[in-house]
Specification:
The protein has 291 residues and is of the alpha/beta class. Helices cover 43% and strands 12% of the residues. The chain contains 10 helices and 8 strands. It has an 8-stranded parallel β-sheet with strand order 6-5-4-3-2-1-8-7. Helix 2 links the parallel strand 1 and strand 2. Helix 4 packs parallel to helix 5 and helix 9 packs parallel to helix 10. The termini are far apart. The relative contact order is 0.12.
């Protein structure tokens, strides 16, 4: 019995290493929305048992990391109280961690992040990059957790008002780089940070394709990059019929995952890991044969 805490600490240390920004290889981050209103799967995994079962399926289908979120950030979504978010998220995080599954928490609330990290989450994925809640910087700095910093120009209910760019890639790159510099000045270590150019957030249609085509400009910042294109609206009609349900965009998502991995992305965030894992496995086999 006395060895149980040691074994648990060792296992959690292994999980943290697997998810840490400094580790090599492209991670597949499986999306787990514990919400009633997410754009693709809202309400499907709101109950704890349903959420945990889906997380297990995500891992079985190739996810390296499960990203648990309790607040929808779809266009037009309204904010929820941190207490509500925590009621949705924390029981799921605790159960997944107890099963040895690497967990990230998708939240803009410092209190939710802090409680989730205390429960064993290894990454905080904040679509506001710490701007929505000023206390997020303290949580990330003091816990030393991995921190995904997304490009952000306001909450979901008004973000499209700010989707105005002259040169989208350079403007987004500059804003991301500036935000990271602020975080480092405030004590967050560079090795904790992953950047996300924020596909679909304050960006319309073609602007998202410009961001993807400009991937190398974001990589040139010198930090790991997360690409989160899964099922988003700009994929409508690309690789599937226009107007088809969001789930029909999984093949287009997998194609973007492959292109991102080829360019060295730290991770890709997807609703269905299976097609993305399949194309990445094919790519790995191809590369192995060449060497």
């Amino acid at each position: 019995m006395t060895d149980l805490p040691t074994r648990r600490a060792r296992r959690l240390a292994e999980v943290r290493r697997a998810a840490h920004p400094a580790q090599s290889g492209t991670r597949v981050m499986g999306i787990l929305n514990v919400t009633p209103d997410s754009f693709s799967d809202g309400g499907l995994h709101l109950a704890v048992d349903a959420a945990v079962a889906h997380a297990r399926d995500l891992v079985a289908n190739g996810a390296d990391l499960v990203d648990v979120g309790g607040e929808s950030t779809r266009p037009g979504a309204e904010r929820v109280l941190p207490t509500v978010e925590q009621e949705r998220v924390l029981p799921v995080v605790r159960q997944l961690v107890s099963e040895g599954i690497a967990v990230s928490v998708d939240t803009m609330n410092a209190s939710t992040a802090e409680l989730s990290v205390a429960a064993g989450a290894v990454v905080v994925n904040d679509v506001s990059g710490g701007l929505a809640d000023p206390d997020m910087v303290r949580v990330v700095r003091d816990t030393g957790t991995g921190f995904v910093v997304m490009h952000w120009r306001g909450h979901s209910d008004r973000m499209y008002r700010n989707a105005e760019y002259t040169h989208a890639v350079e403007e987004v790159r500059r804003e991301v780089e500036f935000r990271v510099a602020e975080l480092i000045v405030l004590g967050v270590r560079e090795e904790q940070v992953v950047i996300d150019p924020g596909l679909g957030f304050a960006k319309r249609g073609a602007q998202n394709w410009e961001i993807l085509a400009g991937y190398e400009r974001f990589a040139s910042i010198g930090l790991p990059v997360l690409v989160a294109a899964s099922r988003k609206r700009f994929l409508d009609g690309v690789g599937s019929p226009a107007g088809a349900p969001p789930a029909d965009r999984d093949l287009a998502t997998a194609a973007i995952s492959l292109l991102a991995a080829e360019r060295g992305a730290w991770g890709v965030r997807v609703h269905d890991p299976a097609p993305t894992r399949a194309v990445l496995d094919v790519w790995d086999a191809w590369r192995a044969a060449r060497t």
